[in-house]
Amino acid sequence: MVQTQVIIIGAGPTGLMAACQLARLNINFIIIDSKPAPVAESRAMLVTARSMEIYRQMGLADTVLKEGQVIDSFSIFMNGREKATLKTTNAGQGLTDFPNLQAFEQFKNEDLLYTDLKMLGHDVLWRTSLVSFAQNEDGLQARLYDKTDPFRDFFVEADYLLGCDGASSTVRQQLGLDFIGGTYQNKFFVADVNLNWLQPTNKLIASLSRQSFCAFFPMYGNGSYRILGTLPQHFMATEEIDFDDLKPVIHSTAKIPFNIETLNWFSVYKLHHRCVDEFKVGHCFLLGDAAHIHSPAGGQGMNTGLQDAYNLTWKLAMVLNKAAAEPLLNTYHDERYPFAQWLLRFTDNIFGFMTGQQWYVYYFRRCFIPIFLKWLLAAPFFSRRAFKTLSQIGYSYRKSRLSINCSSQKLKFKAGDRCPHILIDHDGHQQSLLSLLTETKFYLLCVGDIRQHDFLPAHLQGYINVINLPHAACWHKAGVKGKLFILLRPDQYIGLVSDEMNTALLSGYFNNFK
């Protein structure tokens, strides 16, 4: 019998992120996957600014910047003509240290995280699958199957189990949870190709027609593109579809001169939009595609799984280290389920509009959207708002019971928000506040002339880093007029904002974890 604290089922980006975080938090775990190795296909494409901020804390962001592809514009084409363009270069300037749309394919994310995991002294049990598990009052026992030896089943006892095993999740099925939602009527295709055309290298292009839709995503490497789109109705009954059969469809939809020189990967599939009602059942959790799946509109899927893992793992560590009680883990569902529900609505609305074949949808798309977008995309407030939404830096946990406001100042941020992007003078040069958060720990920011720190309870001193920050102009712009204390959670969201700080207030906040 193997014993550990956490079992992670699935070594995709979500499972690997969970493993890397638990390794940093000194939690014992095993991570398994039925595959023989990480995927080789590109699959998911975009890495959001919020994910990049996490990667920076892990020391991985520079690799993404070096090996990824910046997308500097997004254009909508109809009948081969460019109808509207949004310049995305530095679209998030002043909002984050990662202001660009960044293409970094899923297999690269998996390789990045897997390499990091091995550097931390851990590895994945490949060719190993979950057979069954049974929960009890203290934890669970899982039966695993090692495919390298057809006669080897083994059992693992653990405190918790994380289901990161994708849309067909065995964990979800064995928990008996319904995957509520539906399936889009259209079939879709995705192809990674080497493309020869006259369009700029870093431009993302969406081509719309009455019958179909296709988009061209630039990837790292000269002429490397991801093409995805919908199939016309006459393909619906066709089981085996060859990519050569789709080339005329792509050309007729885009009506842009191009030549596909090499096909690297191709797949046809159905898209679903589904979500479970419970992200936590007993000692089991669902993360990523095991909990929610949706259309690829906005490039949110992989990033949402990374955020799920980032939200949950620090809470698991606190409970396992007896610094918090079991109820803290309920906030994983409370915080991530509303986001998943919003994301399903958001991506469904975008995808429905882009692919809808009803005459009125197409008429509106063809006649009004180009005019509307030309006006809207020229407005700075819209591009900033769009960036905050798509990059996931604008999402907040303000309604969480872990978010407490005790300040009378008219601040431009509140408890539950991501740590504000504020540039401060540090070690002789300017850098963002977020860049100082180099550990997965709580940070207490003391803004103003604060010299005493005797408010830290002895039992919390190992969990909280204190940073003193002068009351500079950057804080004044954010609404800070006097002394301010900001307690940041390990996932870089604000837990507590207060004009004063003392032992009772700080201990009282951590009592929310009991």
Automatic annotation (TrEMBL):
Entry superkingdom: Bacteria
Keywords: FAD, Flavoprotein, Monooxygenase, Oxidoreductase
Molecular-function GO terms, alphabetical: FAD binding; oxidoreductase activity, acting on paired donors, with incorporation or reduction of molecular oxygen, NAD(P)H as one donor, and incorporation of one atom of oxygen
Entry coiled-coil feature ranges: none
All copies of domain FAD-binding, residue ranges: 3-347
Signal peptide feature range: none
Entries under Pfam families matching the protein: FAD_binding_3, Rng_hyd_C
Keyword Oxidoreductase found: yes
Cofactor or coenzyme needed: FAD
Record flagged with keyword Flavoprotein: yes
This protein's name: Pentachlorophenol monooxygenase
UniProt organism field: Mucilaginibacter celer
